[in-house]
C-alpha cells in the first residue's frame, strides 16, 4: 500500500512505486483514482513550486476558512524536513507536530488536510519543492505560527546561527490554543 498513516489523523505519507532501469526511473507522482480509493478525494486546483538554499525555514503557514487548503507536498531536488501541526480543535493530537524528511531521492510525499499548519526546513545545499493545493491562495486568509514557538518546540534540524527566516515568518505569533478556527471531525481525520 503506497499510503502510510502518520501519528496525526488525516496526514498521510505517500510512497509511490518507482520503476528504475538502466535509463533512469519512472513513477506516478499523482493519480486521482488511487488517491480517491485511499480516502483522499481532493480536487487539486493549484500547483506551487519553490526553490530555497540550506538553512531556510519556511512556516508555519495555513489558510483560514473558507480558503483553507489541503496540500500534497514533494521534493524535486534536495531534501527538506517537512513539518505539520494539528490545529483542529477536538483532535486528540491538537497542538502536536509531526515531521518527516522528504527528498528527491526517497520520493516520499506528504498529504496534509485542511486544519494543519505547515512548514519546512532545507537540509541540503539547495532544494526545490512542488505542492498541490485544493483551494486557491487568498492573501486575506493567511495565518501562521512562529517557527520557534516554545510550546511547539519543533526541532528544525538547522543550527540557529544557520537559520534563514523571512521577516514575515519571524513576526508570526506564538501558538495560542484559544484561537482556533478549525474543528476536528471524523470526516477530516
Walk me through this protein's architecture.
By secondary structure, the chain is mainly β. The protein has one domain: Jelly Rolls. The chain is built from two helices and 13 strands, in the order E-E-E-E-H-E-E-E-E-E-E-E-E-E-H. The protein has helices at 32-37, 167-170, and strands at 3-5, 12-14, 19-21, 24-26, 46-53, 57-63, 71-77, 79-86, 97-103, 109-112, 116-122, 126-133, 142-144. A six-stranded antiparallel sheet has the order 1-2-10-7-12-5, with no helix packed on it. The two termini are 19 Å apart. The model has no long low-confidence stretch (mean pLDDT 94).
Features:
about 190 residues, mainly beta, five-stranded antiparallel beta sheet, globular
What is this structure, in a nutshell?
With 189 residues, this protein is mainly beta. The chain has 2 helices and 13 strands; from the N terminus they run E-E-E-E-H-E-E-E-E-E-E-E-E-E-H.
CATH topology assignment:
Jelly Rolls
Radius of gyration: 16 Å
The helix content, as a percent range, equals under 10%
**SS summary, helix count:** 2
Topology:
Blueprint: E1 3-5, E2 12-14, E3 19-21, E4 24-26, H1 32-37, E5 46-53, E6 57-63, E7 71-77, E8 79-86, E9 97-103, E10 109-112, E11 116-122, E12 126-133, E13 142-144, H2 167-170
Antiparallel strand pairs: 1-2, 2-10, 3-4, 5-12, 6-11, 6-13, 7-10, 7-12, 8-9, 8-11
Amino acid at each position: 500500500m503506497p499510503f502510510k498513516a502518520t501519528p496525526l489523523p488525516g496526514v498521510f505519507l505517500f510512497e509511490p512505486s518507482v520503476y528504475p532501469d538502466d535509463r533512469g526511473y519512472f513513477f506516478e507522482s499523482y493519480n486521482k483514482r488511487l488517491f480517491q480509493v485511499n480516502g483522499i478525494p481532493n480536487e487539486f486546483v493549484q500547483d506551487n513550486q519553490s526553490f530555497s538554499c540550506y538553512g531556510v525555514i519556511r512556516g508555519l503557514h495555513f489558510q483560514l476558512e473558507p480558503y483553507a487548503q489541503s496540500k500534497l507536498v514533494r521534493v524535486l531536488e534536495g531534501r527538506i524536513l517537512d513539518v505539520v501541526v494539528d490545529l483542529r480543535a477536538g483532535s486528540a493530537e491538537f497542538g502536536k507536530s509531526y515531521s518527516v524528511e522528504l527528498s528527491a531521492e526517497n520520493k516520499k510525499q506528504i498529504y496534509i488536510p485542511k486544519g494543519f499548519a505547515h512548514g519546512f526546513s532545507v537540509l541540503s545545499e539547495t532544494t526545490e519543492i512542488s505542492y498541490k493545493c485544493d483551494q486557491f491562495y487568498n492573501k486575506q486568509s493567511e495565518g501562521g505560527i512562529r517557527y520557534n514557538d516554545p510550546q511547539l518546540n519543533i526541532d528544525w534540524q538547522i543550527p540557529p546561527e544557520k537559520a534563514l527566516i523571512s521577516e514575515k515568518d519571524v513576526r508570526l505569533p506564538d501558538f495560542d490554543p484559544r484561537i482556533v478556527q478549525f474543528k476536528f471531525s471524523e470526516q477530516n481525520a
